[in-house]
Specification:
alpha+beta; four-stranded antiparallel beta sheet
C-alpha cells in the first residue's frame, strides 16, 4: 500500500508541475482544476503500475541486440519508405502479418520486446511463457526477419496437442 501511495504522490507532483509549467498564469481556479486532473492521471498511473511488472530477464544477448538495433532501424525505415512509395504508385495497401517467434536463450522478454517494437517493421503484441520457452507474438510488415530478429528470435515451438493453441473451429 505504501508503494501505491508513493507512486500516486510522485505522479501527482509530476503532472501538477507540468500543468503549472505549461499554463501562462497560475490562477487559483486553474490550480484547483490542474490538481484534480493531476489526481485523475496519478490514480490511473498508480493503478496501472500494479498490473504488470515485467522482469528484465537474461542479458546475454543484450549487447548483440543493441548492436543490431540501429542497422535494423535504418534498414526497416528504408524498406518502409520504398513500400510506401510503391503503394502510392500502385494503389495497393501493404499487408503485415502476425507471427509467433521463440526468444533465444539469453534474451529477456521485456527488453527484447522493447527493441523489436522500436523498429518500423515490428511490434510485439503478446508474450507467452510455454514452460521454459518464451514466445512473442509479433506484427511484422516485412516477411523476412530483420537483423535484430535473427539475434533475438527463432521459430516458435509447436503447441502441445490438445492445448487448443492453433486448433481451428
Amino acid at each position: 500500500m505504501a508503494q501505491l501511495v508513493t507512486t500516486f504522490a510522485a505522479w501527482w507532483l509530476l503532472l501538477l508541475g507540468l500543468e503549472c509549467v505549461f499554463i501562462s498564469t497560475v490562477s487559483p481556479a486553474e490550480l484547483v482544476l490542474g490538481a484534480g486532473a493531476a489526481a485523475l492521471g496519478a490514480a490511473a498511473a498508480a493503478l496501472l503500475s500494479r498490473l504488470e511488472r515485467p522482469r528484465v530477464g537474461p542479458l546475454t544477448r543484450f549487447a548483440p541486440a543493441v548492436a543490431a538495433w540501429p542497422g535494423t532501424l535504418l534498414a526497416d525505415t528504408g524498406r518502409l519508405l520504398r513500400l510506401a512509395a510503391a503503394c502510392a504508385v500502385l494503389g495497393r495497401r501493404p499487408r503485415g502479418s502476425f507471427r509467433q517467434v521463440r526468444l533465444r536463450d539469453g534474451a529477456g522478454a521485456a527488453w527484447s520486446g522493447l527493441l523489436i517494437s522500436a523498429t518500423p517493421g515490428g511490434c510485439v503484441v503478446g508474450v507467452e511463457e510455454r514452460g521454459d520457452v518464451t514466445v512473442l507474438t509479433v506484427h511484422r510488415i516485412f516477411p523476412e526477419p530483420s537483423a535484430l530478429d535473427r539475434v533475438l528470435t527463432g521459430p516458435a515451438p509447436e503447441p502441445a496437442p490438445g492445448t487448443g493453441a492453433g486448433d481451428g473451429p
